[in-house]
């Protein structure tokens, strides 16, 4: 597993070299991440701001490209810059500077709808699986939402194949 502290130090060095000075942060590895690559938290206590940056553990896996971990670390550290705790113009300008100098493609969100980032995938675990009994197509859900509740209440749902015949399984 890659060292999150080493990645943090390298990113801070590279940001400092181009005139960007992120705040000092505590680091956390998120082993349960299923829908995000990283997160920045800001807490203020007695007038002092404390920052925490977390990265998904899949980015630190030995098989994951270092560029995936570094681009996420840059993204999160960017939020610790002055007036950058959102994805506004100041944050975008800072990320564009990093992109131009170091060849990254940092944006406010992963551009891929598939959850793919440089060959790294976040695996979403389905708690509910709805299966069409005719075409065998599966629909996976993390929460018991409207579709599952409707099927449990005997309401009619339609698969793209035209079938109204489903099974609902809770994992």
Give a verbal description of the structure.
With about 170 residues, the protein is an alpha+beta fold. The chain has helices spanning about 5-15, 65-80, 90-100, 145-150; strands at about 25-30, 40-45, 50-55, 115, 120, 130, 140, 165-170. It is elongated and about 60 Å long. The two termini are about 30 Å apart.
Question: Which helices and strands, and how do they pair?
Answer:
Layout lengths: L3 H14 L7 E6 L7 E8 L2 E9 L9 H13 L10 H14 L13 E2 L2 E2 L6 E5 L5 E4 L4 H7 L13 E5 L1
Parallel strand pairs: 1-3
Antiparallel strand pairs: 2-3, 4-5, 6-7, 6-8
What are the low-pLDDT stretches, counting only 5+ consecutive residues below 50? Answer: 111-116
- Level of helix content? 25-40%
Sheet with most strands: 3 strands, mixed
Q: What share of residues are in beta strands?
A: 15-25%
Q: Tell me the overall shape.
A: elongated
Helical stretch tally: 4
DSSP, total strands: 8
Give the neighbour order of strands across the main sheet: 1-3-2
Given the helix and strand composition, which structural class is it?
alpha+beta
Whole-Å distance between the termini?
Answer: 30 Å
Gyration radius, in Å? 21 Å
């Amino acid at each position: 597993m890659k060292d999150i502290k080493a990645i943090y130090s390298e990113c801070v060095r590279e940001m400092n070299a181009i005139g960007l000075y992120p705040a000092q942060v505590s680091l956390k590895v998120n082993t349960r991440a299923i829908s995000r690559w990283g997160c920045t938290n800001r807490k203020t206590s007695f007038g002092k701001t404390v920052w925490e940056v977390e990265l998904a553990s899949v980015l630190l896996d030995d098989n994951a490209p270092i560029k995936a971990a570094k681009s996420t670390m840059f993204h999160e550290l960017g939020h610790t810059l002055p007036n950058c705790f959102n994805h506004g113009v100041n944050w975008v300008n800072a990320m564009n500077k990093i992109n131009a100098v170091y060849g990254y493609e940092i944006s406010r969100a992963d551009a891929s709808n598939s959850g793919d980032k440089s060959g790294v995938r976040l695996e979403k675990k389905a708690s509910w699986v709805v299966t069409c009994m005719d075409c065998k197509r599966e629909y996976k859900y993390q929460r018991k939402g409207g579709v599952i509740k409707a099927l449990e209440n005997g309401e009619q749902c339609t698969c793209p194949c035209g079938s109204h015949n489903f099974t609902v399984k809770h994992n």
